[in-house]
Structures are given as structure tokens and as C-alpha cells.
Design a protein that fits this description.
Blueprint lengths: L4 E4 L3 H12 L4 E4 L4 H6 L5 E2 L1 H9 L4 H6 L1 E3 L1 E6 L2 E6 H5 L3 E3 L2 H15 L3 E2 L3 E6 L7 E6 L2 E6 L2 E4 L6 H4 L7 E16 L9 E5 L2 E9 L2 E8 L10 H11 L2 H4 L7 E15 L2 E2 L2 E3 L5 E2 L7 H20 L10 H23 L6 H16 L1 H11 L9
Parallel strand pairs: 1-2, 1-12, 2-8, 5-14, 12-19
Antiparallel strand pairs: 3-7, 4-7, 5-6, 9-10, 10-11, 13-16, 13-17, 14-15, 15-16, 17-20, 18-19
Helix pairs in contact: 1-6, 1-10, 10-11, 12-13
The protein binds flavin-adenine dinucleotide.
Flavin-adenine dinucleotide (FAD) binds next to helix 1 and helix 10.
Length: 392
């Protein structure tokens, strides 16, 4: 088996890269460990930055998003019961789109199937070979048969636990990470969102987020200790605690209902440098993780795809393969800015076991940032997403 780009992983990074490359005539094959149904069953992100929206349009997969997605021009932050609205449109000139990762993935899978581009789902024992040479390959098992996919380049889009990053010799990379001392308990329900826009809450009982996937599907989160088990959280307990963290006026509007899904996710920040080795490129969660505060995970994956897609065009269409050497430095500049912003949002909006001095500093950081137009403008421009770097 031969192709130009072997893509490992059919999450948003792999599918979007595959779609963009296919549209400009660069052959690629996607290898995915899970079934399509399993991939579509994962409940994850739901906020798309302006740049991600534009890239999905460029990829020709925006029809459903433009029909069913919801544009939000702002969101609210409550600190100790005081609301501040971040006017995204007014402060940054643009906005965000609420459209679920599941839907983005479904649209990309459908486009790939319609284009007849090759994908192998439920593959096993994926192994990257000779990635430091000009002729790398990927070995894998499918239905009990072993295969080798020869290629020019490997795109590691296989998430945080996938084999791509692990194929790089340890002494060639540097890892940076931070773990936060709490997790997010998430609940999805077919109820009307409590408000049209998202609400972030810093309350003495802990952080809460009111998010959504559509006008009839809500997604709520609560900060919980890492030791908590999801079984200890009945739906009633969840809704009661969420109301405790809301102001009475907002709580009065909350529509509750049976959960469709409930899970606890730990929060951590992680970056590997560099994001490439030989003919292997890492994209999305394979290269970096952000805490979900600030909704950057899926969007960072999209900006990596943007960079690699444009550099691949240079390599194949303009016959400038040396352009690919710039991939990691281009991505990391934006990755670190998103790491900074999500760390900042997490630090300001959650409750920590702070000493009194640190607690007062956190309160002052929030008061300054929400009270100053200059600081709110900075929040807005980061939330809607910093521009993708132009690749010339
Ligand atoms: P993934 O979506 O992880 O896709 C990687 C793919 O590689 C998977 O399909 C996996 O099955 C496949 N794979 C793994 N190993 C192999 C192998 N050996 N062989 C072949 N294939 C393999 N972001 C937000 O912005 N907001 C949120 O609210 C949010 N919530 C999240 C909740 C959870 C529980 C998680 C895990 C993530 C969440 N994220 C959120 C982050 C966001 O979903 C990710 O940043 C995004 O999915 C990254 O896309 P990706 O394609 O890089 O990786």
C-alpha cells in the first residue's frame, strides 16, 4: 500500500487534514483504531473559533454548520454573583460558533466517504517505521491481516495516548506540563440552555460552566475534587449543586432533565517540543493538551491542520519540501498563546486551596480583568481565537 501522507487518527485533526489535502490532490490514507460509531459517540468540544469556522468552510464541510450552528457575540462571567458580559463582537470585531465536535466529525466523515478517500477503521498494532528517513511507513493489522502503508510523510493525529508522539526518541523532545488539583464533572441533557450565551461562574463553592450544543441540548460543568466518582453524582445532586453556584435569577431559568451523559475529566496542560521529527508531524492532542476552560482544544487542532495543510501545499504543489521544516515553530507560537490563555482562565475562574494572600490576588486579578476595557478586549481577542499565522 502506498500514499503520500499517512494520517493516524480520525478525530478532528486527522479528518480535517485529510479533507483539505484530498481537495488539493494530495493523496492520503487515514488509519483509525476505533469504529466510526465509537468516534462519533465521544462527547467533547462545542465552541468553534472564527478561524476554525473559516477553515471548515474552506474544506467544503460547512453546510450543516452554517445551517445548524449558532453564532454567539458574547458570553458572561460571574464572580461572586456579579455578572460581566464579554462583548466578543464589540471588543474583537468577530464572534464564535456553537456547533458540536461530534457534528464536525460527522460532517468530515461524510465528506470523506463521498470523495471516496481511503480510511481504515478498527485497525490494530499501528507502528511507525523509519520516520527519520525519506521513506517512512506505518505497519498495522486490519481484520487479522498485517499491512504496511508506505508514504512520504506521517501525520500523527492520534490524540494524547496515540503511538505517534511515542515513536520519537525521548532525547529528541522536551515535554512541559501542569496538572490542576480538580476535575470537571460534565452533564449533557436535552433541555433548553439556561441562556442564549455561555456563562462561566466563579463561586465560593467552585467553578461552573453553562454551555450548550444547540437550542435544545445543554452541556453543564461543575468543578469537583479529583477524588470524586461520577456514580456519586445523581442527576438531582448535579442540578442542585449547579443551582447553588448560580445567582437566584439565573437558577430560576434553569431547565433540568435526565442526563444523556455524565463524566469527570481531569484538567491538565501539556506541550511537546518540537512538534515534528524527521518525516513525522504531530497535530492536535498528540502534541498539546489544554484545560477546557476557554474552549481551545479542538480549535488548536484546527490551527495545526491549517499550518500543515499550507506547508504540504508548498511541498507538493510548489515543489518546496524544505518549507515543512517550519511546521513546529509556526504551530508552537500559537499553541503557547492558547496554553497561556487557558491557564489564565482556569486560574482566575476556579477555586483553589489558596493561602489568604493568593486568594486576594486572584480576586484582584478577576476584578481588574473584568473591570478594564483593555483587559476585556484581551479576553475577547483570545476567546474568539488569535489569527492563524499566514504561510508565505
Ligand atoms: P482526538 O479527537 O483525540 O482524535 C485522535 C484519534 O486518534 C481518535 O479517534 C483515536 O481513537 C485515534 N487513535 C488513538 N490511538 C490510535 C492508534 N493507536 N491507532 C489509530 N488511531 C488511534 N475541547 C474543547 O475545546 N472543549 C471541550 O469542552 C472539550 N471537552 C473534552 C472532553 C474530553 C473528555 C476530551 C478527551 C477532550 C475534550 N476537549 C475539549 C478537547 C478536544 O476534544 C480535543 O482537543 C480534540 O478532540 C483534538 O482532536 P484530535 O483529532 O487532535 O484528537
Amino acid at each position: 500500500m502506498k500514499t503520500q501522507v499517512a494520517i493516524i487518527g480520525a478525530g478532528p485533526s486527522g479528518l480535517l487534514l485529510g479533507q483539505l489535502l484530498h481537495r488539493c490532490g494530495i493523496d492520503n490514507v487515514i488509519l483509525e483504531r476505533r469504529s466510526p460509531e465509537y468516534v462519533l459517540g465521544r462527547i467533547r468540544a462545542g465552541v468553534l473559533e472564527h478561524g476554525t469556522v473559516e477553515l471548515l468552510r474552506e474544506a467544503g464541510v460547512a453546510e450543516h454548520m452554517d445551517r445548524d450552528g449558532h453564532i454567539h457575540d458574547g458570553f458572561s462571567i460571574f464572580v461572586n454573583g456579579q455578572r460581566t458580559r464579554i462583548d466578543l463582537k464589540g471588543l474583537s470585531g468577530t464572534n464564535i460558533m456553537v456547533y458540536g465536535q461530534t457534528e464536525v466529525t460527522r460532517d468530515l466523515m461524510a465528506a470523506r466517504a463521498a470523495a471516496g478517500a481511503p480510511s481504515y477503521y478498527e485497525v490494530d498494532q499501528v507502528e511507525l517505521r523509519d520516520i527519520d528517513s525519506a521513506r517512512p511507513s506505518v505497519a498495522f493489522m486490519k481484520d487479522g491481516q498485517s499491512h504496511v502503508l508506505e508514504c512520504d510523510y506521517v501525520a500523527g493525529c492520534d490524540g494524547f495516548h496515540g503511538p505517534s508522539r511515542q515513536a520519537i526518541p525521548h532525547e529528541k523532545i522536551r515535554e512541559y506540563q501542569r496538572t490542576y488539583p480538580f476535575g470537571w464533572l460534565g452533564l449533557m441533557a436535552d433541555t433548553h440552555p439556561v441562556e442564549h450565551e455561555l456563562i462561566y461562574i466563579n463561586h465560593p463553592r467552585g467553578f461552573a460552566l453553562c454551555s450548550q450544543r444547540s437550542l435544545t441540548r445543554s452541556r453543564y460543568y461543575l468543578q469537583v475534587p479529583l477524588s470524586d466518582k461520577v456514580e456519586a453524582w445523581s442527576d438531582d445532586r448535579f442540578w442542585g449543586e449547579l443551582k447553588n453556584r448560580m445567582t437566584p435569577e439565573v437558577a430560576a431559568e434553569l431547565e433540568t432533565g435526565p442526563s444523556l451523559e455524565k463524566s469527570i475529566a481531569p484538567l491538565h496542560s501539556y506541550v511537546v517540543e518540537p512538534m515534528q521529527y524527521g518525516h513525522l508531524f504531530l497535530l492536535g492532542d498528540a502534541a498539546h493538551i489544554v484545560p477546557p476552560t476557554g474552549a481551545k482544544g479542538l480549535n488548536l487542532a484546527a490551527s495545526d491542520v491549517y499550518a500543515l495543510y499550507h506547508l504540504m501545499r508548498k511541498a507538493y504543489l510548489d515543489k518546496q519540501p524544505e518549507a515543512l521544516q517550519r511546521y513546529s515553530e509556526i504551530c508552537l507560537r500559537r499553541v503557547w498563546k492558547a496554553e497561556r490563555f487557558t491557564w489564565w482562565m482556569t486560574s482566575v475562574l476556579h477555586r483553589f486551596d489558596h493561602d489568604p494572600f493568593s486568594q486576594r490576588l486572584q480576586e484582584t486579578e478577576a476584578a481588574y480583568s473584568l473591570g478594564s476595557v483593555a483587559a476585556r478586549t484581551s479576553i475577547a481577542e483570545n476567546y474568539v481565537g488569535l489569527p492563524f499565522e499566514t504561510i508565505d
